Every structure is written in structure tokens, then in C-alpha cells.
Protein 1
Amino acid sequence: MSATIINGKAIAAELRARVAAQVPAFRDATGRAPGLAVVLVGEDAASAVYVRNKGRATREAGMESIEHRLPDTTTTAELLDLVGRLNADPAVDGILVQLPLPAAVDTQAVIEAIDPDKDVDGFHPVNAGRLATGLDGLVPCTPLGCILLLRTIHPHLAGLEAVVVGRSNIVGKPMAQLLLRESCTVTVVHSRTRDAFAHIRQADIVVAAVGIPGFVPAAAIKPGATVIDVGINRTDTGLVGDVDFAAASEVAGAITPVPGGVGPMTIACLLRNTLVAAARREGVSLDLATIDGAAA
Amino acid sequence: MSATIINGKAIAAELRARVAAQVPAFRDATGRAPGLAVVLVGEDAASAVYVRNKGRATREAGMESIEHRLPDTTTTAELLDLVGRLNADPAVDGILVQLPLPAAVDTQAVIEAIDPDKDVDGFHPVNAGRLATGLDGLVPCTPLGCILLLRTIHPHLAGLEAVVVGRSNIVGKPMAQLLLRESCTVTVVHSRTRDAFAHIRQADIVVAAVGIPGFVPAAAIKPGATVIDVGINRTDTGLVGDVDFAAASEVAGAITPVPGGVGPMTIACLLRNTLVAAARREGVSLDLATIDGAAA
């Protein structure tokens, strides 16, 4: 058997197009484009690439990109001051502070300083709490992207057995909340789990987010399962995921490649979150089900 | 085999005594006792009993109990006004609004109006978010009580297989977060789960919180497992839990009775949370591990 390869690049392009299609109506209603402010501190090469890509995608969607580049000597106080100004700026709907920040900066203080209603990364504790209690909020981009990929295979997720591998604040834990919201039965396995593979072997849906190249072997995957690989690990042989892709794609029913799977969805969901934040701030109504591409 | 019966009443009394033992030092440091404000709206008989019991337990622990009883005609605006005054009152460390509120009141607005640092029920989205992201906050009393009961049987919870039955905001979801924080492998099963018993049968720890009398049969329990029964269901034959206690206690290794298991822990944890909130507000240090009775 050979798995369906979930084409994250194409699915992300469709999502970006659906987001972009909403911008003219927003502009008509408000007289301005949605605005995303991205803050980059220091000279980390990978971060600089991410920020450049985010800026380009923002402009391509018809939104305004505001970029702030600060030296790696920036203090926590200076960053908090900038965040405060962006919170107060009516033209800014979304604020993204590119992580990681230099070690001398109090990252948690910066995250908590962002207005939760402009927190398009969804990392503020208020948004984590809204997600945990079933309220509307802004959801972290990567796990949201995973849900949208899953829906292309499973229009209805309710009742499916899902295993999340990893328990980070950025992926694993919000992923588990989102799957639970979709009425999956959810198990979170992690470094202290006795037999992670025994759990994975029972799962209809596996989301791997541990950051260990090839951690999930084909033998741990239930035939026909859907496998979402969040890992992006740099190795001597190039970028690889947390799943042994070549072997797993002979067992799974559907699987995301690395690269070209979850990665492109993260930026697309950032644009989607910026549009959502802008619409909520301005009281403009959105048809989220259509934007997210829910099954009819 | 006959299970160890987990004596929640005795364990709660010990917790209350450890909390009470900290009050004199707090009083010496601050010149006042920790204060818990309880707000009761309307004439619900069960709520009145809860509020009376909370007031008595608060005073017995040497803390100040402030009770506000309002008619069932109270509006959301009036309640928000009261909460605002309690937030501003320096003698109030904890605020508990007894639920359920009358149908005409916007319960969510009231919950979100409470200062998160005085939210001893732990229901505010900020506290849910702190729990979800591993920050210090105030944790809902019932799941916290379950963790403290579990620790009397398992001084170290890491690596144990835990199944939470139910996904409410008040018990199931925060319970799953707390078990994950303790490094258990956590599965949440619920009404849409295909085969909840298959999951429960694998679990070292079962926390049942569905509100269905006897939902978990003995046949679904792994021999030797620890079973925490959060259910308190009124039936013709009296109060019963979500677990078939008589039969399950022949299979489980340890089990909580209903009543006398989780119930008494909830009020004890409310006092514990009030002390924690008071100490944080006043900058008084506490040895939480000792108060919570952690294994040496």
C-alpha cells in the first residue's frame, strides 16, 4: 500500500488564496488593509529567512507588513516598549515576535505583554486559556495548520483515535486541545512515556512533534493511519521529519512530507490569524468555515 | 483482592491542618488573616449548603470568611460591580462566585471579571492558560485534590498511564493538564470516544468525571489500578459515584469512595488556594511541597 501524500504546499496556497480573497471586503469596510507587525531581534540567519518569508506572504495576501529589526543588544525594556506601541497602534492587527529571542531577554514577559487580541502566534496565556476552555481566541499556527491538513483527509474527526507525540507549549499541548475540541479521543505521549509506540500503533491519527529525526518508525504506525509530521530536523542528508517517511508511507493511509507538509501551513495560518484578529477588532464578520476550507 | 480505600475525608483534614498551620506566620508577616470572599446568588439549597460549609472551613483554618448573599434577581451588572469591589479590596485574597448562577446572569463575564490572582476556583481563562503552558497560577480545586489523593498512593506519578473520563472545563480538561505536568501519559476519553473501556482497561490511573452513576464497571478496570471517582450523583439509593464502587473495589489497587473521597478535598484545596493567593499577593514565601504533602 502506498499512502496519500498530503500536499501541504498546495493546501497552504489554497488557504492563503481564501484569506487574500477576504481582504478587499475588509478594506472596503474599514478603509485599510489588515496589518501584521513582525519583530526580529538579532542576526539569527534562520529567523531572518522566516521573517522575510512572512513579510512576502503578508504582502501577497494584500495585507500590510510592518517589520521591526532590532540589534541583538536590545533589552527587555526596549522590547516591551515596542510591543506597547504596537498594541496601541490601530493599524496593527497582529503582532509576531520572532522566537528565539536573545538569551538576555525575558521571553515570557515579552509574550505576555502582547495584547491577546493581537497575539497571532497564540502563545499568550490568555489565548492558551481560551483554547483550553473552549472560548474563541487566537490558536497557535502550527497545530491549527495540522488540523486543517487532517480535515482534507477526514472531513469529520469526531471519534477518531489521535496520539500526539510531544508536549511542547507551541505544538504538542495546543494540538491535543484542538483534537479534543474536534471530539477525537486524545492521548499525549512524551519522553517519560513507557511505551509510546504501543499508543501510536492504536492511533487513526498520529501527530509527531518531538524534534527527533525519524523517531516514529513504520512499524509503530497502524496500517491506514493518517500521519502528520511536524518535525523539521536538519541532518547531514537534509531536512527530515520526526517520522521515517520512506517506510511509513508504505504503511500509512496518508502522510505529510518534510518539507512541504506542515511547514507551509504555519505561514498560511499566520495570515489567517491576522485576518481573524483584524476582523474581530473592527467588528467585520467573517465566514471562518469557508476560509478554513471546512467540508460542506 | 480488595482495594485500599483512599480516605479523602482524613487526607483533606490533614491538608486543612497544614494550611491552618501556615496562617499564624502569614498573620505575623502581614498583620491580617488571609481573606476568602464567597458570593452566593439566589436560593439554591445545595449551593447554600456548599457556601455554609466553605465559610465554616475557612474560619476553622484561621482565615477570614466574607460572605455576600444576593437575591436571585441580581443582574450581571450588579454582580460585576461587586466583583470589582472585591478585586479592589486589599483584605480579600480569594474570590469564589458559587455556581451555577441564575440563568439571566452572564456567568462567563462574571468569571472573567475576577482578578486572576484572586481566582481561587481557577476557572478564569488566564489561570487555565497558565496551567496549559506550565506557569504558576491558581488551579481548579477538584482536579488539584485528585492529584493530592493520587500522590498518597503513587509518590511518583511520572510514566504512569492515566485515563481521564470526561472533558469538562471544571474537572476533565484541567485534570488532564495536571496529570501531564506530573509526566503521566494521558488519554482523555469522552462521549464521542468509540471504546472508552478499552482505554480505561490499560490505565494505571483512572479519573472518572462524567456524572453518570456507575459508568465505569469493574470489568473496565485493570487489576491493581488506582481509581479516583469525581462523580457525585444523587440516586434513589443515595449518593453514588461514576464508578461501580462495590465491584470495582474488588479489582482496583486503590479507590476513592463516594462520598468521602474527592469531595472533601475540594474544600481543602479551596483553603489551600486562598493561602497561596494571599501569600503571592503579600510576597510571603510558602513551602508548597510541605503544604501539599509531597513525598519526602
Note: The first strand of chain B starts at residue 4 and ends at 5.
Protein 2
Amino acid sequence: MKIAIAGAGAMGCRFGVKLQSAGNQVTLIDNWAAHVAAINQQGLTVTTDDGTDHVYHLTAVAPQAVTGEFDLVILFTKAMQMDQMLQDISGILGNHPAVLTLANGIGNVETIERHVPKSQIVVGTTVWSSGMPGPGHIKVTGTGSISLQAVVPTEFADFSGLLTTLNAAGLNASQADNVMAAIWKKAGLNSVLNTYCTLFDCNIGEFGALPNWRTLNDAVLNEFEAVAQAAGVAFSAQDVTDLIAAQFSPETNGGHYPSMHQDMAHQRPTEIDFLNGYVAKLGAQLQVPAPTNAILAQEIHAQEALKGIS
Amino acid sequence: MKIAIAGAGAMGCRFGVKLQSAGNQVTLIDNWAAHVAAINQQGLTVTTDDGTDHVYHLTAVAPQAVTGEFDLVILFTKAMQMDQMLQDISGILGNHPAVLTLANGIGNVETIERHVPKSQIVVGTTVWSSGMPGPGHIKVTGTGSISLQAVVPTEFADFSGLLTTLNAAGLNASQADNVMAAIWKKAGLNSVLNTYCTLFDCNIGEFGALPNWRTLNDAVLNEFEAVAQAAGVAFSAQDVTDLIAAQFSPETNGGHYPSMHQDMAHQRPTEIDFLNGYVAKLGAQLQVPAPTNAILAQEIHAQEALKGIS
């Protein structure tokens, strides 16, 4: 299969290596010139769990420069960069590739729909993870899985073929029953842990130790539940709360600072508009007010502005 | 006049000095033992605008130790310490002194009413200010004024006598037309500037430079306006917004960190429950939801907990 990975950060590179090693023809697409140059000149270095380095030779290219025909485009940008990326790679979208995103946040389907017919879109969630110490270098730990579903299952061309390709590469992909519910569930968790840990500059365990964490949590998730219901998506505030409470101990994620906290610390824009901000906006459209999520999104934007992040 | 000043911090001491210098018999009441001891042993040192020190001899005493009869009790504790203070000085409240508070925050009248008949209570706002570098030592700058009103004007014994006493001491006191409106106005300003500057760890000018300060501001003040209306208090979100916008320039208060920010920095409990928290609570009672103010109060409490402030 000819596969383009649009957004070749830590995760995009990890997927790219696995898919190419399984016999696919992979092109990595990324905006970071030093990263693209390093991959093309020295290859991509992958440091594995045991500390050993492995070098893989893949083709990397800037978004505006990509050409050719692809069977599958995997979008691995952050939610807020997705629209620009799709615009930049519009030259390869005309030949009806399948377009898959596993990005965090709600509203990604709406972004992709502006560039690609709904019938070609597949969305999912993943627990694979990866880090990037520098250009041309990723660090991978553990294994993961993918849960995915076509946006219009009856119209998507070859879903079982897609699953076969992903699983031949060892990506542990399976079909989701209700992928939108899974996306909202993950977004609900992130809209509590990412947002509050960023706002309070604390880790997940410290958030869980707050005397009023349940009040803070419920104010967000009760609005999520109401907006999800109006939008026809299954969402249980209680289920997500249970999932959140399971992250607090040092044995799970207690010592961890969520990705939004890391974005803020490294002066990168956050995904807040695709988490609390999305629910506030959708709530306003559906006349289900979500004032807590609205003010939290504004507070994170204020913190971005104070840090000079635009 | 025999005057007790309950809560002899920077402001209480400044008022005490002025009132005693005008011929009143003043007793300072405070919980801080080192401060009480310093005043009794070395006198109270007042550093004035021009940098000179002046020593005044006043009587200071711990709340549980105060006895005697007073014509006037001026409460200068923070809102959240007022209830305990009134309990501790209950021995001097039996002889029907007038009780005056100029403390920030809404709900102070309700606190005082639990200890003193409504007919004896006077409330107001002030723009006098003062700082305290250490025990037995205050630093005063500029001048100020007081605007005050009896809670039940028709029942208060001698309001003009009270005004005369305050003005003989140079405190620039005048009768307010609608003291509750003035208290809500000041609380509205503080519920925006104090709360957000504390939450974001920024000064007033930095808050004013945020691209979304109006959105953050309006979310708080529109709820204030709705709750005030239900409570029968005059409140204009637009008026308070104008007052807030006038604080942003370096020439006014732009470089200033509000008192709540200083409380948090010095590990002291904040007044949040008498600002945003009060409006959230009153809104819930009056069935006028104030979710923005509710979550802001919870966020400040979370920050207090993270700093080990209980």
C-alpha cells in the first residue's frame, strides 16, 4: 500500500516505521525542515525500550512538496494544525485516498470533511505512544492498539483491507462499535486532566489529591454529558470520572504531567479548542449551555497569551 | 468616644492612630501575639510617605482578653475571619456598641448579624490603604475616604455623631446613598481582577493586555448583574467593566498585584468565598445560576490546596 503520514512527529514516525517494515511504501510529511532533512540524510533513528538505536530509511518531504498517488493518508498532526495540513497536501487528496486520523480532541471529522468526502474518512483512538528527543530521532516504549471506524461505514471502500494492512504492521487495530463515543470519552478525560493540570501547574496525582477535585471534575463532565446527549453521542460522566480516578495513583499516571501541560511548558499552542472549547461551542449551537467548559477554554487561552504563545 | 478596632492589621492600625490622635480612646484587638506585644512594649511605628517614622502609644490586646464597654467597634479583619473575631470579642458586644465594617467582599452584614442586632450595624467601603512591614510597624501612603451607611438607617442611633467622630479624625467619611450597591461594585471589580490575576499569576496590566480579557470579565460580571438583580441590589456590569478598564495603565494600577495574589503568594487563605464564591452561593439560593463564578471559586480553592493553605 502507498501510505502518506501527514504530521511525522513522534507518533507519525513510529507508525511510519512499522508500516514500511511490513512492506508498505511510506512517505513522511512534516513541516519541520530540520527533521525532514535529518530523515532523508541520516535516516530515522529509533531508540527502543532496551536503549538500543535502530536506523530506518524512509522518505520525508515538506507538505507543500508532496506529490503522487496514495491509498491511505494518516493524519498525525495535532487537531489545530489539521486544517492547514490538509490544505497544504491537497495535491494528494484528489485520487480518493482513505484518510485516517487518530488525533485527540473532538471535531476532527468536521475539519477533514472540509477537504475530503465523508465516505473516505476513518477515525479512531489509540493508546500507542512515542517521544521525540530531536530531529530525525524518536524514542518508543511499550506497545499499543488502535480502535477505529469509518465515519460512514456503509460507504467506506475496503475497511477490512485497511484493518489487514494495519495489523500486518503489528498495530493491533480493531473495529470500534461506536468510535464517536470513544473519542468523546477520551476528550472528556483530557478536558479534566489536561486542562486543570495545565491551569494549576500540577501533575495528575496532585490534581487527584485536591479536596475539591470531584467538584471541578463534575462541572466539566456534566456539561459534556448534556451536550453529548443533544448531539446524539453516548457519554457517561460517571464512566469518565471512574476512568479519571483510576489515573491518580503513582502506579498508573499520578506522576505524569498531561500533554497540554507539556505544550504550555514548551510554548506550543494547546488543543483546548478541540476539548473544553469544542464542547462549549457545540453546546452554544445546540442551545445546551456549557459555561464551565467555555470559561476553562478562555482561561487556557489567557495562559497561552501570557506565555507569548499565539 | 471609646473605640475598639477588631483586627489591627495595617488598616486597623492606621485608623486607630488617626482616631486616638483626634482624642478618642482606642483599643487595638488582634490575634498576632508578636504584633500585640510590640505595640504594647515599643509603641506602634508609623512610616509616612516622606520616609519618616513616628511612634504612637496605643493599647493592644488579644481578642479573648478584651473587656470593657465601647461606643464603637470597627471590624478590620478579612471577611473570612470576621465570624471567629466576633465570637472571640462577644464580651464587648453586649453593651450595644455600633459595629462598623469596611471589609471587602459581600456577605459581611450576614456574618455580623449573627452576633449583633441589625440596628447597630454600619457598613461601608474605603479607599484608604496601608501596609505592614512587620509586627508593631505600619507604612502609610496617600489619603483616602470612607462611604458608609447604616444597615437600617431608620433604626441606627446616632449616624451623624459617627460621621463627626470619623471626620474629626480626618478620615473623610460621608454617607452613602446605596452602600450595598457600592459593596457589590467593589466586589465585582475584585472578583475579576483579584481572581484572574491570582489564577494566572499576573498583574493588573498583564490581565488588561490579554486579547480575551473582556470575555473573561463579562462571564463573571454578567452573572453578578443577574444575581444582584434577583437580590434587589443595583449593579451594572458595564459600569464595573469601565472601572476595571481604568485600572490597566501603568499610571493607575497596571503594575499592581491585587491583594488576593499577595495572599496566595504569602500562603494566606483568600477572600474568594466572599467574592465569586458568594455570588455563586447566593445565585444558587435565588435560582439564578452563576456557574462561572462557581468554578472560579473552586479553582482558587484548588490553588490554595496546592499551596498547602487551609
Note: The CA atoms of residues 9 and 308 of chain B lie 23 Å apart.
Protein 3
Amino acid sequence: MTGPAATAESALAQHISAVSLIDQHVHGCWLTPGDRRRFENALNEANTEPLAEFDSGFDSQLGFAVRNHCSQVLGLPRHTDPQDYWQRRSQFSEVELARLFLRAAGVSRWLFDTGIAGDTTDLATLRDLSGSRAAEVVRLEQVAEQAAQAPGDYVTAFDAILRRRMVTAVGTKSILAYRGGFEGDLTEPPAAQVAEAAQRWRDDGGTRLRDRVLLRFGLHQALRLGKPLQLHVGFGDRDCDLHRTNPLLLLDFLRQSGDTPIVLLHCYPYEREAGYLAQAFNNVYVDCGLSVNHLGARAPAFLARLLELAPFRKIVYSSDGFGPAELHYLGAALWRNGIHRVLGEFVASGDWSEGDAIRVVDLIAHDNAARIYAFDSG
Amino acid sequence: MTGPAATAESALAQHISAVSLIDQHVHGCWLTPGDRRRFENALNEANTEPLAEFDSGFDSQLGFAVRNHCSQVLGLPRHTDPQDYWQRRSQFSEVELARLFLRAAGVSRWLFDTGIAGDTTDLATLRDLSGSRAAEVVRLEQVAEQAAQAPGDYVTAFDAILRRRMVTAVGTKSILAYRGGFEGDLTEPPAAQVAEAAQRWRDDGGTRLRDRVLLRFGLHQALRLGKPLQLHVGFGDRDCDLHRTNPLLLLDFLRQSGDTPIVLLHCYPYEREAGYLAQAFNNVYVDCGLSVNHLGARAPAFLARLLELAPFRKIVYSSDGFGPAELHYLGAALWRNGIHRVLGEFVASGDWSEGDAIRVVDLIAHDNAARIYAFDSG
Amino acid sequence: MTGPAATAESALAQHISAVSLIDQHVHGCWLTPGDRRRFENALNEANTEPLAEFDSGFDSQLGFAVRNHCSQVLGLPRHTDPQDYWQRRSQFSEVELARLFLRAAGVSRWLFDTGIAGDTTDLATLRDLSGSRAAEVVRLEQVAEQAAQAPGDYVTAFDAILRRRMVTAVGTKSILAYRGGFEGDLTEPPAAQVAEAAQRWRDDGGTRLRDRVLLRFGLHQALRLGKPLQLHVGFGDRDCDLHRTNPLLLLDFLRQSGDTPIVLLHCYPYEREAGYLAQAFNNVYVDCGLSVNHLGARAPAFLARLLELAPFRKIVYSSDGFGPAELHYLGAALWRNGIHRVLGEFVASGDWSEGDAIRVVDLIAHDNAARIYAFDSG
């Protein structure tokens, strides 16, 4: 927690400080050195261009949160200024930073979406540096792109790659949000259409899947596996049309999705809609990753909105950390801070008991994720 | 109110505790015994299937609110655990529970939407058990379904049934939200189209109206009556497409709706859009029913959002209670709690005077509803 | 600030009380006397008809805020009742009221959208009465309507009028939101299409531009100038379809908008979406005008939501005052009150340092606007 003194801390505050997290959606941390420009650009998610000259990645909720929370991990005072933060950070290698921040996060397991290429930690390195368990989440569009390059029949190749990777992986993920969004038909396409679309796509080079038939095919193959399917929803970079990622556009898809857990990631600014879906469907879950980091001091307001219609057994934690190792840690720090702020108020107002609040913390921190990914406890 | 002591209570708090409510949209309470599964399922609104094995209706904002507020009506401590709550509840018949909870709500009048079939209290029983007045709200789609089964011309039958029922009823209601949503043409259809659509529908059996022409016909007949027309907006079960119930999709309809009061029910997550419409049209009102119950500890945040653009003479109260008698009571308890939280903060911050806050409580609690439904005061 | 005592005031509170504002979007104040009905109607933005008999413009967040904040400027106690407020106000001429309220606002510069006709102050009078600097913002649809009435080629006339007015003007504004909304193609139309559309429009009389081709032409001419382009977004009167003014519908337009600053005005209820766009595009800014006035006691919640994803160098202040001189003042009073409430909580919770909060106040109050409109400081 961020409070100065521990003596007068409530049982809820103590519990939140100590609770171990399953971070159910992360990517890798940087391994190679970079300049301050790279770092500041990594504090802006939505922009796909470098920040303007007049701007600074530090002048945002995320930037302020880095200076508040991450500074302490590096032995700096809170709210340290950007220049001091950058200088201190520069005294460490990215690997050292990763070790520091990953271990400070209080995360017992990482679920690692390996679908982003780049010079970042792989699964084994993440495991080593953090000293925690880690398991893979397989990106469906990457499987499709591998299948497009594989010999033989597309469907057979897709299935073979997916099944091979799912021997150790614990779930799948789709970035349909970035490949045209959620509007339109998301039913399972007939085999003949799939074959035809695959042929057309292979003829075009078979890279960066945007074909709706093949995107739909991938989703339904994932449903069939029964393992949790994560969907990018809402907030991300401007390559996706944010309004086409409103999760209510998934209603028809969800109505036919059976029992496979579907986890709606990020969700901002549609977290209230996502919470509704988590109440409406036994197999739908909501997550707070990415949003909590970028909202900083406003993360408590977001977490409160996520606690509106979503049943408490349907909410999971993630950081969605990628790039600067700060983000893997900061997600946890801001979640702990925010959930304490929100549940602490519910308790202070008499709306909830402290015991209930502690139990809900456990559900979101690890119990719900452990149940849907079938982990043993702890 | 939820505060422990009454001595130091503000005039605002005392007023809110005691103010009598017009609950302008409810359904019936259960009359027949049921098991715990029925009870827990009734705590989830959006899901149309039974809750999953791993889930519990108690683990939601509504479930926590039942354990906090309703427990006290049954002589249990606040935050009593689900098992104890269930056992205590089981010591009463549903009729006894209804008598207890209805009388505890502090409601002087119930406006009863009789359009849901099921083994629940009728209007007379609601009146008897609560000891309060009650009047009917007529569901237009039910009138249509009755007209489809009646002999003779559909339009004549619809009008005759509607006018007969409106002799004692105080308003109408439409669930257009569940029958295709608000998108598209909502103008009054020409007589020939109505006749043709009615014939087609009767030929198909004349049940569960979904024909847009006949839905539009019903709405415009209701407008003609001049009595308030309630519209289901937003939050409900997943049979409706939530994004097709955004009340902004009603703009063209509202522009041609004349002076008939139109009450937007529930509204979540579109309460800010609904508040805008209440400012934009002299005849549009917003309501908080259903949402307040399901939001529990987050109901104050919802009520605060409802107090953004909506003029204070355009906001009304309801619980939308249906099934467990707890919900008729809990709506009132959470509204009292929430409006105190919100207006108390406006007063504490100096933004509002306490006298103004008390007057706004009266407007929302009963004055606005008394005006539009033409009740004498009290 | 609204707090009673100054002695214990924080440095942040003192800074906010004293900070001078650039009000980057206003209109004129009334000059001619009017009755109470005119005044009350001016407290409702969304309704295009006179308020109903049963209603009062005072019974709204804006009405309560007038009685709280503006009463003090007129020497009345806070929360003075509507009748007393009206009587006191009636003792002054509109010119006297303008002098009082404009000077009380603490605004160093006004950016004046001259596109609304009516018996209100012009630029010179606003400057005189306020004792502050003022510069024009040119409404593109007005330029188009002037060009339609001008002799010769439409494009040449449009360009000549625009360039002549932009010699002294500091930016442009579009009310595309009111002329069909943001949906659909917003690319630059080919010259032949523009010529044809202009001819058709001139043949029809050339008033109230709604032609999409010519609206698009105007936007792209404005982009070419490089001076800031203000766009009406969200909240306004019911002549616009609110859901068609969701700023996410501008995504494709923004993707091709280059470096010209684009300022999203008002934004309610899409302020979170607007904040996302301010993060996603180096040239996009968000503004709080109109909304802050109409939200009154709920303005802090709005300002907090505006501080979610929007980078702090991308947020600007305006009142959008028009008509009653109260509104030019009240925007500033509510912004000071609200930003203090929000940033004060960030500081109290330890999320932000006070020094950072003070710096962000300066950015929003004037630094960001000074940068994009190229003013010298102060």
C-alpha cells in the first residue's frame, strides 16, 4: 500500500498489501537498452506515432503513477521528478530493472501472451527474472499466420499448431478488436468458406490476418478447446476503432459461446457494459489490465465501476505489462491501492463488512483466475 | 439510513429516513414457496439461464445489499452470512415476507406493471399486503397480444382493450427494448400497414409481438391517451441487445411525442444520456428502478450520475421489484441511503443548501410522480 | 474558491483561486433587457422549446450553481432563493451585469466564437466590458454561408473570406455536430464535387449549410490553415443527435488531420472517449466548456473523468458562456471549485504531489491554450 504507516492499518489494508496475485495477461519486458524517448513513448498507449516535441510521457496519469510508485522500488522518494527518475533508472540494465520490478509486484503466476514480437523477455526469462510461475496464452491470429505459412491444408495446419501449443498453454487470446472490430457476423463459418478464404489469404501472402471468415474460424476453434479465451476489448492503440470494440457488439457471439470462459480484457471505457455481460453470461469474465496502469490516480474510479454489475466471482486481475518492467509492477501497485480505496469506502460506509471485502479481494486477486485456468491454489 | 446513531443526524438525513415514496414501477412478489436456487437466481437480472454451479447470487452488489439491509428487517445482524440469511428467510412464508418487506419500504403508492405473468401478487394483494395504495400500469405489448386473440378488427380491439383498462390504470408501459430495440423508424404507421401487419401476425398465431409496425402502432396509441408512457431503457436481461436500448436512439420518437409524459426506466448504463433527454424534452422523465437494487454499494454513484443534466423536476423513484419481496423494500432502502450520500456531499461541500437538498428529495420521492400521474398529494 | 476560511488554505487552493484563465471558447453576453422567462430558459441548454409551465430553470444543477456562486458576485448570500436572485439581478442592466461577471471571472483572454447571431456583445464590447484581451474564432459554417451569398466562384469566395477573417482570428470552429453529425466520410472532397455541391446549394438559397460535401470542404480548408480547429462534440441542444456526435466517429478524420490542433469542445457524455483521442493523437485536445456549467455540483466528477486518459498537456479550459453574463463567470468559478476538489483529493491521497497539481492547474488554465493559439504568456 502507499500509506506511510502500518501500525494503524486495517485488516483489509494488510490483506491487500500481502495478497499474491495471478496476473492473467502480460507480455514481455524490455531486454535491450533504450533512450528516454523510447521510455516516454512507452507511457502512451493510444498513440501510434512518437510523442510530439511539446509533450512528455511523464505528464499523464501513468507518468505520475510511475513517479509515485515505481520511484520507491528504485530507492527514490515519491513524486520524484522525471529527470531524477530517468537518471536513476539509467543506472540499471533492463534485466536488472525487470528483476527488481517483477519481484516487487507480489505476483505468483504470470499468464503470458506471446503474440507480440519484439526484443522482450520470453516465457522462460520472465519466469527466471520474477522467480514466479508463468504459463503461455496463445494468440489466435498468430496461430493463423503460422498456419498460413505452413504446408498443406489450412484448417489442418491451424488445428495442429493450436493443439501443439495448447499442450502447455493455459488459454487463448484474440485481437479481433484490432482486425476489424466486433461488428457483424461472428458465427462459425462453413468449412468451404474457410478453405476458400485461406486460399485467398495465402495467395496474398498470408500475413497480418484481417479476413473475417478466418478470424471467426479461429475464435470458434478456441471455443472448442474449452480453455479460457481472452479478448482485447476497448482501450488500446488507435489502430483499432475504439467504438467498434464495445463489448456489447459481442452479444450474439456470447449467446453461442457455450461454457468456454471468455475474459474481456482492459474494457475502458466500456467497463460498465463489460460488467453487464459478466452478469448476463455464466462464462464471461472482466479484467482491469492496461486501464488500471494508464488511469493512475483515477484507477480507483475505474475499479469501482468494474464492481457495479459484474458478479464478484467474474472479475480477474491483470497488468497487461509490456516493455518497461515498471508496468508489470505498477499494475499490481495501482490495483492494490485502488481496490483498497474502493472496498475501504464500502466498509467505512457500512455497505460491506470487512470480512466480505477481504474475501472479494481474494476472488479477484487469484481465486477466480485459479478456477478458470484450473490452477491449484497458491 | 445506515448510520448507527440518530441523535446527531442532520435534518436532511431525518427527512430522507421518513419521506414517503411513490414507487412508480413495480411488479408482483412471489406467493409460492421456492428453494434457495430460485432465490439466488432472482438476484441476477441479466442472465436468462440458471447461475453456474461455481457462482452464487449472493456474491454481487445486490447480494451484499440484501445481506446488509434486508437482514435487519428479518431481525438479523447486518452483513449476516448467506446461509443464515437463507435459513431465517425460510422461516417465513412468501406472503409473510411480502407483508414485512412491503410495509418496511415506506411507500405510499405502488404503480404496478401487470404485464409479467407468473405466480406473484396481483394488484389487490399488493395493496392488501402493503397497506398502501396501488394502481395499474398497462403493458402495451400485452394489450396487443390480447387484441390479436380478440374477435374483429385488430385496431378496434386494441383500442377497446386499452381504453377499458385505462379507466383505472394510471399509465402505460412498453418493452420495445425487448422486441427489437429502439433503432429505426418509430413514426406512427399508416392504417393500411397496421391492418396488414395485424393480419399477418394473427395468421402466425398472434403471440409474443415483435412486428415493428404493430409495436409502433401501440406506442402512438399510448401517446394519444396523454397518460404517462413508461419505456424500458437499458439494463435488463440479455434477451434485449443492451446497445439497442440506448435512449438516444429514441430522439426522433421523442421529437414527435407531444406532451405525453415519457418515463425512461432503469437507464443503466445510459443514465447520463437519459438525463440529457430529460433536459431536452419537457415531457421526458428519468427513473432509477432496477439499477439501484443491482448496484448496491455503488447505487450512490448511479444516483449522482442521474443528477447531472436531468432537471430536478424530471426525476422519479421506482424499485422495479419483482419476485423476492426483498426487492420492493431494498429499492427504497438503497435509494434513501444513496440519495443521502449524494445530496449530503453536495451540502457538506457547500454546493447545495440543506433546504434545497430536502426539497429535491421530495421532488424525486413523490412530488414529480404525483404531478405526472395526477395523484393528490400524500 | 468556495471554502469559508482562507487562513488554512493550501498552496494548491490559493493557486487555483488566483490563476488567470484563457477562456478558449465563449460567445457574447446579452445587451438588452429580458424577462425572467428568458433568463430561466437560458439555464436549459438541451431544450429548444420554452420550458414547461411546471418547470423552472432554477431547479437544475446549473440553477443551483447560479444561486450559489453568482449570488456572491451580486452581494447576495449563497444559495439565495430564485426570487431574490431574480430581483437583485433585475436591479442591474445587462451591460452592468456583464461588467461585473466578466471581471469577476479571472480570465485574461477570451476566444470568441462569433458564429451565433443575436443581440449580444461583439468582440470589442466583450473586450471593453471585461478589461481583458479577446480574439476571434471563426465559425466555418458561417464562412460557407457568406461564400454562398458572395459573387463568383464558391471556393474562391470561401478562401478569400476565411483568409481575410483569419488575419486577426486565432482559430476556426465547426458545428458539423449540428449539421448531420460525425458519421460517414469526412475526407476532403474533390474540386468538381465541391463546385457541383456549391452550385446546388446556391440554387436552393445558400442558407443553413447541411451539405456534407461543403461541410467536409470547410473542415479541410481549416486544417490547411494550421490554426486550431474547434469542434462541437457531445452536449448541446436537441437539434443535434447526441449519439452522432460521439468523437470516436471522428477517428478516420483525425487520422488524416496532420498537425493542426483540433480541440474537442464540451464532450459530455463522451469525455472519456475524448480523453482517449487526446492521448491517441498528438494534435487532439479536450475542453470542458458548457458541461462544467450545466453540471454544477457534479462538475468535479466530470473534470475527474476528463483527467483519465487525456495527457495533461492536452486539456484546455473554456466556459462556452452565451447569453446571461453569469455563465462566463460561472464556468470559471465551477472550474476552480472542481479542479480543486479533484486535484486536492489526488494530493490528499498521496497519488500526486502538490507541486505537480499546481503545475497541471497552470497547464489547463492557460499554458496549453497559450501554446496552441501561439499567445505570449500571461
Note: Confidence is low (pLDDT under 50) at residues 1-7 of chain C.
